[in-house]
Amino acid sequence: MPPKSPTPLSASSLLIWLRRNLFSTWYNSLLTVISLWIIYSGGRGLVQWMFSQAQWTVLKANLRLFFVGRFPIDQIWRVWLILMLVSAVTSLTVGVIQWSRTLPISMGLLTAISLGVVPLVGGQGPELVWVAAIGSVAVLNLLGGPWLKTHLSPRLLSRGLPAVWFLTAFIVLWLLMGGLGISSIRTSVWQGLLLTVVAALVSIALSFPLGVLLALGRRSPLPIIRTLSVLYIEVIRGLPLIGVLFVAGVMLPLILPSQVQLDAVFRAICGLTLFSAAYLAENVRGGLQSIPQGQIEAAKALGLNPMLVLGLVVLPQALRSVIPAIVGQFIGLFKDTSLLSIIGLVELTGVSRSVLSQPRFIGRHGEVYLFIGLLYWLFCYLMSLGSRRLERQLGVK
Amino acid sequence: MPKLRLGPKWRQSRIRNGLIQGLVLLLIGVAVVYFGANLVQNLQRLRLPFGFDFLFSKSGPSIGETLIEYSPTDNIARAFGVALLNTLRVVVLGIVLATVVGIGVGMARLSDNWLVRKLATFYVETLRNFPLLLQLLFWYLAVFLKLPTFENRIQLPGPIILSKNGVAFPWLKGNPATLPWILALAIGSVCAFLLWRYLIRLQIEQGRITFAGLWSLLLLVGIGGGAALFTQRFPFDVSLPYVDQRVVTGGLQLTSEFSALLLGLTLYTAAFIAEIVRAGIRSVSIGQSEAARALGLKPTLVMRFVVFPQALRVIVPPLTSQYLNLAKNSSLAVAVGYPDIYYVASASLEDTGRSVEIVLLLMAIYLTMSLLISILMNLYNRSIQLVER
After folding, report:
1. What is residue A46's predicted lDDT score, i.e. its pLDDT?
2. What is the ipTM of this complex?
3. Is A22 at the interface with chain B, CB within 8 A?
């Protein structure tokens, strides 16, 4: 006779779940109690600190400093305009590529919430108008994207969208730097979150092609090119980023002719780009190695020349398969921009330093670090969300 | 036989490859000459001759925390030596601690306890998504420097003394009996290991339980205890920290800078190591552990003999790059004022202005350290790889 199976538990499913997941053995029960204690004491400490000890005025008083630093106040419309442009192009792209019923609604909700929050943190008429305009442009584009998709040819769209992005990038740079009709702005007033985002995005845009070239160089059959690529990649990967920034900051002025003056922001971006390219190259190499040799042979047999084999067959597949790794690298780069504060730039972390040195707010480290930490986290989260969407769109298994 | 048409000469692959490489070399050569000429010109303009003699002729920067004797009147070379030791101290301790914490958290993420799993996930996701620099600043400025001043220090049972100046806790201190005892223990471990191997073989051949672990442990304890009896004293003295004339004496004393750096690096790297460990253990197919359980192995033995050795092959290569990251990230010490290599290098640069030499030195030191870690880890990696028959 087979042994009797244990009597089914007659309690509610919650109790069963508790028993199975939290108290299955004596040591699991012990672990549960310890975890509960950790959560309780940590949570209690945090809540106490947030509501009785923390003074959040430090954030409200310095909000502008955190976001744009000492960007000239009469030119602040440029930053708003950039935000509007970027949000317009982004929402258009999202609307065209992937129609979603919920996105316009949630975007509208987000705008409404922002409109409610802006007066609370000291925003007035102009800020409200800008926020409303940015929100409505985004919602309109999200709704209009599908219309464009049905009325324009796919060919035009697939050519047009990158062109629009390219154009936007130039307009943004023009608005940031000035010249050509509007007053020029020194890069030394690029500060706060603005500088963090600009430095990260420019380095990402520059290091990506460089990284792909280095990866191709490392897999090239030509010995000289291969050796040089390997040497570059391995040397950079052996150095800490702060060392690379130090080298870029110290050596660039020395190896350029004395008439050329590179300012600190550009030197930092050079350092970030050189550093990130080496790591990207290794990620891309992984993708290149995943392409079976047969694909290349088949493409050659079809009569494609080496450039076309690379551009039409190898790279699209290789890059698609390493999107998570590449985006992970970009997220790392975004976090690494905090190191610019060590070489004297006033990006988000640097701003926190100057805010904390204000006599009114000495010792408010917890509040400030929590706030800028959340800003960093938000951007990293958005990037990884975008990567997952992109993967699904491209059908990566 | 008709002659094969090869097209114009430059389209032939051998010649074309040669041309491309020649062109690249030429471009790089031109760049090197151009930048080199600028460099020489700029150095002349700044009246900075090239050479490493300044390392021995000038006095170094002041360093707050040293493992060997150092005063600012010593030369820069010695300052670099002090800084190198400081860096190595934090890197070695950081690697050990991060591995321990990382494996713990990685296991916790695979626990069958729901709460433990969620807690570990929260830890990993939080720590990985904030910049390391911010975390170091947080630990240093918002935790360690918020401790009370030395006059109002916190005294925890142990005794552990906490204040702005740092942490002090009880530690073992060597005495004349330590060295013989360690030697005896080393010999004892070898003997115990040999005995264990012999008994295990006996168990496999004869199929009876030989209590291999128990016997070898007994042997080890016996040798250790015998050596301690022979030297007539406990092999270590326990050194307790106490306050003597407004300074802490005895025990292990860590400054706030070092503690913040070590804590930040450890917790940050451990979050990455936890993910590596989790992925490694998940990579071993479930059939393996099911088969092992079906053979009658206990869960701990399944982990020890079946799952972990196979997971290790997946874990070690990415673990190596995490160790390298930790070593490189230790350069963020400068943000919390701990005198590591980068700190001393940039301080020396301010004193002397010898940028090219210091940049070269900095690169050489970090590259050597990275290379050393990779070589050691690759040797280890080779020893655990699958031996195919």
Report:
1. 92
2. 0.87
3. yes
